[in-house]
Amino acid sequence: MPLISEIVNVFASLSLKSFGLLVKANFFSLTIDSVRKSILKYMKEPLVSTSKDCVSDRIKKVILERICDGSYVPGQRLVELQIAKEFDTSQAPVREALSELSAMRVVETEPYKGTRVREITEKEWQECLEIRGVLEQFAAEKVLNRLEGKIEVLREIAMATLKAAQKNDVQEYGLANIEFHRLIVEAAENKTLLLVWESLANEVRALASVYSNATYLVQAAQDHLEIVEAFAEGDNRYAGKLLKIHTDTLIL
After folding, report:
1. What is the pTM assigned to this prediction?
2. Can you give the residue range of the structural domain that contains 78?
3. How many other CB atoms are found less than 10 A from the CB of residue 84?
4. Is residue 241 located within the same domain as residue 142?
5. Cα distance between residue 206 and residue 68, in whole Å
6. Taking CA 25 as the corner, what is the angle to CA 251 and CA 60, rounded to the nearest 5 degrees?
7. What is the Cα 160 distance to its own chain's centre?
8. pLDDT tens digits for 21-49?
C-alpha cells in the first residue's frame, strides 16, 4: 500500500542515531510491524465521521489543548463522567477520546486508578525532540509549493510566538509554537507523517515546564521567522535544515 511504503521511506530517511532512539525509546516502543498495524487501522477509518466521532474528536482536541496550556497538569486524574457532563454527552465518546490519547502516550490508564495525564521524563522529552526534528526536516522537503498561499498565515503565527516570548508567556508561546510546526507538517500532505509527528508533538508540551526563561523563548521565536523567510523564498531544503537546527538546540 502507498502509505505503508511511505512510512518505510520516512524511517529510512532518519539518521541511524535517530532511528536507534526511535526503536528503543520507552515512550514510543513501536516496531515496524506495529507501525504498519496502526496505519492499517488508520486507513480503515471511515472518511465521513459519525456524530459520535465528531464529539470524540472535539473532546480529544480540548483535552490536548488543556494539557498544552497547563490547565491539566502531569499526574492529574481525568474523570470520564465529569468530562461527559461538561460536553453534555455520554461516556462513550469520552472513553474513545481518552483511548486515543492513551495510544498517543499523552495520558495513561491504570486498573482501579483511572486515567491521568502522563508525566514525561527529561530523557523521553529529549529523545522525542531529536526524532521530531528529523520528521519536520523531512516534511519541509516534501512541502513543494503547498505553502505559497499560506506564507502570511505562517508569518502571523511566527509573530504570535515572538509576542508571547517577549511577554514570557510560556503557555501562549507553547500553543502558537505547536500551531506553527503543525502547519508545516500538514502542508507535506502525508497522513502517515502527520500521524507519527502528532504522537511526538504532544509529548513536547514539556517545553513549558523545562524552558520558561524569556531569552530562550525569544531566540526560538526568531528561529520561526527565519524559517518562514526560507519558505517564502522557495528554499524548502534550507527551511528544513533550519527546522532541524531549531529543534536540536532544545536538546540538552
Report:
1. 0.64
2. 49-117
3. 18
4. yes
5. 8
6. 90
7. 18
8. 433 333 333 333 443 444 334 334 443 34
Residue 238 lies in a domain: yes
- List the one residue out of 227, 212, 228, 225 whose CA is nearest residue 167: 212
Distance CA 113, CA 126 (A): 28
Model confidence at 175: pLDDT above 90:
no
In this predicted model, what pLDDT tens digit does every residue of 61-113 receive, in sequence order?
Answer: 899 878 876 788 889 999 999 999 999 999 999 999 999 998 877 899 998 88
d(CA 249, CA 252): 8
> The sheet that has 114-117: what strands, in order across it?
77-78, 114-117, 107-110
The C-alpha cell at 22 is: 526511535
Give CA–CA dist 249/223, Å, rounded.
11
CATH number for the domain spanning 72: value is: 1.10.10.10
Secondary structure element (H or E) that encloses residue 56, with its range = helix 51-68
Of 95, 117, 139, which marks where a domain is finished?
117
In Å, how far are 2, 19, 134, 135 from 14, measured between CA atoms? 19, 6, 6, 8
Q: Which amino acid is at 232?
A: A
Residues in the chain: 252
- The DSSP string of 144-204 is TTTTGGGHHHHHHHHHHHHHHHHTT-HHHHHHHHHHHHHHHHHHT--HHHHHHHHHHHTGG
pLDDT over 70 for what percent of the chain? Answer: 72
Query: Would you state the cell numbers that stand for residue 64, as one nine-digit string?
Result: 490536548
Cβ–Cβ under 8 Å, residues 232 and 225: no
- Residues ≥6 apart with Cβ < 8 Å to 124: 25, 26, 27, 203
Q: Do 178 and 68 form a contact (C-beta atoms < 8 A)?
A: yes
Percent of the chain with pLDDT over 90: 47
